[in-house]
Amino acid sequence: MKRFLYISLVVMIALSFSTGCATLSPGKTSTKKKTSDKTLYSQVPESMRADVKEADFDLKEAKRLVKVAKDKVGVGKMKRELGDKQKKLSDYELKAAEKTLEEKEINVEVKKWEAIDNANLGDKIDNIKKVAKLKSKKLNAEAAAVEAKADTATTRLEIKKLRKKISKMEAKIKE
């Protein structure tokens, strides 16, 4: 058995030496110079270059069309983003309006309980606690309304900025 393994090992080593390196193919070396396409093309007479110039022009036009198409895709994405921001703006405006409404409704309740307290109706301690709770709730609603209004203002600025960016891209595409 040892003899078989020894012979197999010797055969594999011999094969690896006989095949050589896989990166270099036989007959080619890395020092051999290649003739460049530009050098060969420069030897073509000018009268025979018309088809190449036309193909080169077509290539440049195709590249330009690809760039325009990519720009249009970019504009489309920005318009989608603009739509998302406009929806977000509407949501913020709705939230601000709802919180302002809530604040006004609570204010009516506060005024009612203050009038009840001033008329010496009901338990004085309960009236004071009720007014305090309502005023606290009113302040929370007011704070939420202020926050929603701030979000509305910043989103409006983002929309304005995005619209300018879109118009610049569209003008660039039209050129």
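Next protein, fold it too.
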Amino acid sequence: MSSNNDMQILVGRTEQLIAAITNAILSSAEVAAERIELAANVARIQQRMSAFGSVLETVGAQKEMLAKQLPNATGPSKTLLLKQIAMLASQEVAILSKAGVAEPTAVAALAEVEAPREPSPQSASSPTHRRDGRRFLRVAPGTKRDRNGTADTKEGHDEE
């Protein structure tokens, strides 16, 4: 037990030493200047990313508006709408590239966002699990909510 107590004392002293060194470093004028410069750079980057986000939202809204018009369009107007949507998609890729996202990654991300979502096969009305104390049991499809589709057993053992 003595070694455990000695270790706790050593850890406490180490933490005090680290805290004292940290306070000394942070109180120096050089570190304060660096922190101000870093904070300014972070603020500049946040503003830039916010601006990119705003532009992306605007372009996305324009694409959505054109996509809503697409089902009713025919002939040359449909071709024009498709061309405009393609141009807006390339603008989105360019914006993401300026934000530092590689072009293939930007294309893949935009494709994922724009992909139609399939409805989930399980609805909220048909649970997949039920609580049994601290455990969750899988509920077999088509069984009642209070059963899990297994044979009648008590506490996991067959009746005798």
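About the second fold: Strands lie at 129-132, 135-138.
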